[in-house]
Specification:
alpha/beta, Rossmann fold, SIR2/SIRT2 'Small Domain', 3-stranded antiparallel sheet, elongated, binds zinc ion
């Protein structure tokens, strides 16, 4: 049995083990979930303070709900958009962008729709649940960018297509919708080729993203997990760090690359 350590010493030791694995098996593929964005002021979905405790996803985030009552569903997505207008990348996003620029991270596969990896400077980002970056018209396929959508929401509870007037749909994958084909295929390809998959801030409960670590393991790759709370893959991971993404990844980047410029 190891000696009990202070939380700070425990984290430093876990980060050292994580840095060792990443250095040995780089470049790694990173899979991120909502936990990577909580330090940017965006609540996660499934924790005790998560979005789904206040909004039943069956009423606010399914494609059937959207078709039935788009005004109600836009009440939810409109609030999300307002939060995103103010949100900025945090240390976790910035550390991943830095690690990618240094060749330590090959790609970031994300379940998030918040654009924060891109805003932090990550270049190879695979968004498996779509993005709030754009909304599209279900009738005429007009595409409306994020900032224009904000202006439409200033005047309408459910934003109309500027071309034909139909209610726009955010380009995120709602429950009951098919996953984007190219992004999903790319995510599975990256997972199978990864020598190390680093999971950050995902409880690995929502498929198909939750199936990606199994692909890496089946192909002989290793797994490292940084997440508050447990996941179904903890027993198979080389390293698990039960801590906040921002603090952990900032420390990882410092350990591998030195202090940020
Ligand atoms: Zn239209």
């Amino acid at each position: 049995m190891s000696e009990p350590t202070s939380p700070a010493a425990g984290l430093a030791e876990a980060v050292a083990r994580l840095a060792d694995a990443v250095a040995r098996l780089a470049p790694c593929v990173v899979l991120t979930g909502a936990g990577v964005s909580t330090d940017s002021g965006l609540p996660d979905f499934r924790s005790a303070s998560g979005v789904w405790r206040r909004y039943d996803p069956m009423e606010y985030a399914t494609i059937d709900a959207f078709r039935r009552d788009p005004v109600k569903v836009w009440d939810f997505y409109g609030r999300r958009l307002r939060l995103l207008e103010r949100a900025e990348p945090n240390e976790a996003h910035r550390a991943l962008a830095r690690l990618e620029a240094a060749g330590v991270v090959e790609a970031v596969v994300t379940q998030n729709v918040d654009r924060l990896h891109e805003l932090a400077g990550s270049r190879n980002v695979v968004e498996v649940h779509g993005s709030m970056r754009t909304s599209s018209c279900p009738r005429c396929r007009e595409v409306v960018p994020f900032h224009e959508l904000g202006r439409l929401l200033d005047r309408h509870p459910a934003p109309p297509c500027p071309r034909c007037g139909a209610i726009l749909k955010p380009d995120v994958v709602m429950f009951g919708e098919a996953m984007p084909e190219a992004e999903t295929a790319r995510a599975f390809e990256l997972a199978r080729a990864a020598r190390l998959m680093l999971v950050v801030g995902s409880s690995l409960e929502v498929y198909p993203a939750a199936g990606l670590p199994a692909e890496t393991l089946a192909a002989g790759g290793a797994l490292a997990i940084v997440n508050r709370g447990t996941t179904q893959y903890d027993a198979e991971a080389l390293v698990t760090v039960d801590a906040a993404a921002a603090e952990t990844l900032a420390a990882l980047a410092r350990e591998l690359l030195g202090p940020p410029a």
